[in-house]
Amino acid sequence: MNNLFLSILHGLILGGAYGLIAVGLSVIFGVVRIINFAHGAMLMASAYAYYELFTRYDVDPFLAMIVIAPLFFVIGFLLQKVVIRPLLIRERASVLEPTSVMLFTIGLDYAIANLYLMIYTSRYKTLNTWAYSNYARLFDGKFVTQYSRIISFVLAFVVAGILWFIINRTELGKRIRAVSQNRDAAALCGVNVHTTYGIAFGLGTAALAIAGACMASFYLVSPSVGNVFGTKSFMIVVLGGLGSIPGAIIGGLIFGLIEQVGAQFITSTMASMLSFILFLIVLVIKPDGLLGKKK
Amino acid sequence: MSVIVKMEHVTKQFGGLTAVNDFSGEIEKNAIVGLIGPNGAGKTTLFNMIANYYHPTSGKIYFKDQDITEARTEDMARMGLARTFQVTKPFGDMTVLQNIMVGAFLHTTNARQVEQKAREVAGLVGMTCDLDMIANNTTTVDKKKLEIARALAVGPELILLDEVMAGCNPQEKLELVDTCRKVRDAGVTILIIEHDIKTIMSLCDKIYILHRGEKLVEGTPEQVANDKRAISAYLGEDFDNAEN
Amino acid sequence: MSYKGNSIFKGKFFVWLAALCFLVAPLLANTYMQSILILVCFYAFAAVAWNLICGYAGTMSLGHSVYMGIGGYISTILLETKGVSPWIGMLIGAAVAMLIGVVISYPTFRLKGPYFTLASIAICEIFGTFVLNTENLGPIPLKGGSGWSLTQTGYQAVMYEFRSKLGYYYVAFILLAIGVFVTWKMSRSKLGYYLVAIRSDDDAARSLGINVTKYKLIAMGISCFMISLAGTFYAQYFRYIGPDRIFGYDLAVQIALIALIGGQGTVMGPVIGAVVLVPLSEYLSATFAGTMSGLNLFLYGVIMMLVVYFMPHGLCEYVVKAAQWIEEKLFGAHGKRKQSKAASK
């Protein structure tokens, strides 16, 4: 019984990190209505940025985040504004769903992942930061976990809270919401649609860079992490309801719980299969996700 | 004249909003029946219920004496009911001819027969453009005609036309009116939604005016034009003047 | 435009010429070139199978290799445990893959656009994880992550094992030819028209009496059947099958990218994609082997992005145009007027 309790705690901690990775994806989908298939690859790219900063200049990822996150905001903004925008405009004329953007991000994902494979090879690296190698002991020393995991867990809620606040409580957020509900009407009211898209994309990517700092300090860095976490974050986001910020966090927690609690009974890889099965079931029964709104 | 569609106390609610309220009515075989009313009156909702895109909250709909209230969309074409869309939905990548052929494939798998049928129908609706053109590249009026042709290709007894004339100039409207008459003469009943009163008055045998989800008036164009309620609610006081 | 892509068949000359090249080329090539040609046929066939449902009906699957894996595993297990010839095992595997494909797709076809794509990734992931972690499924050995190395049968053609690469090549070529023929037949039949209609607008398709799910399932069944044959070929040719690659995300995306870059929803698109991409990536990975693994797939990604930007209908459109141009020069303009008129508008 005690083991179960501990595995629930581990699951929640891991789930928080999953939620943090997924929340950026959810923001982008919620506003721009595209699934960024390069999400995982960009996560991986940010992790390598932290890796470089740590090994070369000994900068802790949680510190480097202050520079990397704004940098990724700019990258996301430009990606939307310069690269994706023409595709969206072209799609506008013909079909309903932006397929070409999806194909583009699939290509981008493949390109980034393999570019890093070329540069860094498939060997994985760990960052021996303070938070990685020091353990917190809670509940009379029974619950032992890396500090980096606890920081990630807290950061998940902080980042989700900030994003939620920006979108729901600020003037900028009002524009973002207007665009996400009806971009033509928003454009008529003088909102610059594509700049707003760019900002949303930037916010999502910046959140992703923060997740990258967490991942680099509690997991490992390798070209394939993008694939592993990217795929999971798609599932998490759909599970929670695409576009819903609390949904992404809750979806992440569910995934974390299934994997950690399930690992008490079956092998951990089998447990991650369970979460995919749950994802499929939810998708088929309620395509809008647990917290998703009906369109 | 026998009745092809019969609606009994049809009501449709979306959440708290009642889009169509207690509508009863009939469409006679081989007639052109018009459905008019201001925006949001529930015309398209009523339409979609006959075509079974959604099902009524309550009430019954009969098509050729069969209860179709809960039928599936894709079964309607085989039963003899076809429709067009308010916003045209051509299969953009295909040519005009291929678009029409999709409709004609319903009753046979023989590609040659299908092509022949498609060409016939294209002639009937008066497609003026090159049939080998990609559908997305055609003009608005040709897209409208394409939708009618595609729907006709399934061999329906009743065709539902949702604002086919919207966005067309007067000349094109005349062409479409002509098309509708030809379609009716080919033995197909028409239910048409339209905003242009003048067109609909000249085209229809019978008109329903919907207002806020309810049937306001029904009757021949003359009866409707002289109806006090219709004039005050929709046609406007100076309708008679505008007519001339 | 993409639907018009099949007008390449109006210029039958080029198709026969291409077929002739495919037939003769391996005879003139050395073993290394032959192995590349085999891979071209293999990937082209897989992409053709993918294209049949995903390209024509527009249901972007990024997990289609799962059916390849099912077919490959079944024929391999039958061969290794019961001594069943892979020629028979291949058909049994294909039948099972078809069944599984149809059963799984029935609920997931309700999902639209990216949701379907995500579901397909999840399905592939589930199968892969399951096989990776399962040594025995009841009485059936799966051998988990180590996979199956096929035992030698002494180069018996009846056991799908050939002494020279030419044998494998012609098997792959015949599979590809069948795949292209089936696609071509389908593209001008009711099924083909219906699938393209569904891809363009499923509401409009429904209004014309098309049972969207039914026709998608039929195409899915054919597609799963075909791609699982590729799985058996994979196992026999490489003499190995394991979960890492065949149930992996990379292979699934690679197949999709070949078809997409070549031109989805066209008969020849996937073949053109494979002819361009496979030799390129094989050449690169041979040249930079060890130093820069990933370069070949990196190029897939970059080419995909460029194709999305500059040729949304894939390479096929340009190949068709070039073929028409050459044909006009060679045989005069007769008979081609209609196409070029439509194309120019």
From TrEMBL, chain A:
One Gene Ontology BP term is: amino acid transport
Kindly list the GO molecular function terms attached to this UniProt entry. transmembrane transporter activity
Its principal location? membrane
**What CDD domains does the entry give?**
TM_PBP1_LivH_like
Q: How does it sit in the membrane?
A: Multi-pass membrane protein
Instruction: Please tell me one Gene Ontology term that the record gives under cellular component.
Output: plasma membrane
> Where does the record say this protein resides?
Cell membrane
Could you tell me which InterPro entries the record lists for this protein?
A: ABC_transp_permease, BCAA_transport_permease
One Pfam family linked to the record: BPD_transp_2
Sorted alphabetically, the keyword list is: Amino-acid transport, Cell membrane, Membrane, Transmembrane, Transmembrane helix, Transport
Domain of life, per the record? Bacteria
Q: Which PANTHER family match?
A: AMINO ACID ABC TRANSPORTER PERMEASE PROTEIN, BRANCHED-CHAIN AMINO ACID TRANSPORT SYSTEM PERMEASE PROTEIN LIVH
* Protein name in the entry: Branched-chain amino acid ABC transporter permease
Tell me which species this is from. Agathobaculum faecis
Automatic annotation (TrEMBL), chain B:
Sorted keywords for this record are: ATP-binding, Nucleotide-binding, Transport
Q: Which PROSITE patterns does its entry note?
A: ABC_TRANSPORTER_2
Q: What domain of life is recorded for the organism?
A: Bacteria
In terms of SUPFAM superfamilies, this protein maps to: P-loop containing nucleoside triphosphate hydrolases (SSF52540)
ABC transporter domain: residues covered: 5-237
Tell me which SMART domains the record gives. Answer: AAA
Gene Ontology molecular-function annotations: ATP binding; ATP hydrolysis activity
Q: Which InterPro entries does this entry report, sorted A to Z?
A: AAA+_ATPase, ABC_AA/LPS_Transport, ABC_transporter-like_ATP-bd, BCA_ABC_TP_C, P-loop_NTPase
Looking up CDD domains in the UniProt record yields: ABC_Mj1267_LivG_branched
Record's protein name:
ABC transporter ATP-binding protein
Q: Which organism is it from?
A: Agathobaculum faecis
Automatic annotation (TrEMBL), chain C:
Looking at the UniProt entry, the stretches that span the membrane are 13-29, 36-58, 87-106, 167-184, 217-235, 255-280, 292-311
GO annotations of cellular component type:
plasma membrane
Q: Indicate whether Transferase appears among the record's keywords.
A: no
What is this protein called in UniProt?
Branched-chain amino acid ABC transporter permease
The organism encoding this protein is: Agathobaculum faecis
Keywords on record: Cell membrane, Membrane, Transmembrane, Transmembrane helix
In terms of CDD domains, this protein maps to: TM_PBP1_LivM_like
Q: How does the entry describe its membrane topology?
A: Multi-pass membrane protein
Tell me the compartments it is located in: Cell membrane
Its Gene Ontology molecular function terms?
Answer: branched-chain amino acid transmembrane transporter activity
Its predominant location is membrane
Q: Keyword Cell membrane, does the record have it? A: yes
Which Pfam families did the record assign? BPD_transp_2 (PF02653)
- Tell me where on the tree of life, at the top rank, the source sits: Bacteria
